[in-house]
Structures are given as C-alpha cells and as structure tokens.
Amino acid sequence: MTTHELDEATLEFAHRMFDLARTGATEELAANVDAGVPANLTNGKGDTLLILAAYHNHPETVAALLARGADHARVNDRGQTALAAAVFRQNATTVTILLDAGARPEAGSPSALATADFFTLAEMRALLETKNRS
C-alpha cells in the first residue's frame, strides 16, 4: 500500500507517530505501539520510529521501542542505522542501549564506526569498541 492509497486521517495519524518519536513522547508512543502501531513503522525516507528517536536524543523512547520489538538493524534509505544516528548525536546513553540490544557498530553505510571516524568522535569510537569487545 502506498501513501497515495491511504486516507488523510491515516496519514495524519502516521505523521503523529513520527512526531512522537522525534519529540520523545515515550508513554504515548509506547501506548500506540502496544495498541497495534507497528514498532518498525517507516516514513517515506525509510526512517523508523527507532531511528528518529535515536537521532533526536530520546534514550527512553529508544528503550521503549526496542522492548516492543523495534529492529535496531533496520536502515533508512540512506543506509543509516539508529546506532549511527546516536553516534552522530554523541548520545552515549542511546548508543549503550542500542549496543546492549545487539546493534552492530559495523552495520549500515555509513556505519556507526565510520560515523565516529568521519566526525572524529573519539569518545563514541571508544564506546563502540568497548561494547564490541564485550
């Protein structure tokens, strides 16, 4: 089903879910996922709720989505993962949550490791390496 086949109310609801991920409205978003919204809902750019929550620095939302089955390995249309987004934003808490859930630092293109190297994020690189060895 394409966006052209969805009615206006459904599209508006989907946009609201993405806004909840962006703003870190964890309780409301989690309740909607519990009620049937797909944990891996994806927008027109391939961004999942998880990628948006990670990019916008909402570790509690990231944890809630992971607990509800969000796939940390999904990539958006540009090849980016939630882990790479968290590394770019230098959010150690979110990076740790994603790594603990099994996210792979070498996944995606650019990967979280490549992102840390490109932007010279030594602390993020060290965190990725430490968790990658455990």
TrEMBL record:
ANK repeats lie at residues 45-77. GO terms for molecular function: ubiquitin-protein transferase activity. One of its GO terms (biological process) is protein K6-linked ubiquitination. SUPFAM superfamilies: Ankyrin repeat. Keywords: ANK repeat, Repeat. InterPro entries: Ankyrin_rpt, Ankyrin_rpt-contain_sf. PANTHER family: ANKYRIN REPEAT DOMAIN-CONTAINING PROTEIN 39-RELATED (PTHR24171), BRCA1-ASSOCIATED RING DOMAIN PROTEIN 1 (PTHR24171:SF8). This is Ankyrin repeat protein. It comes from Catenuloplanes niger.
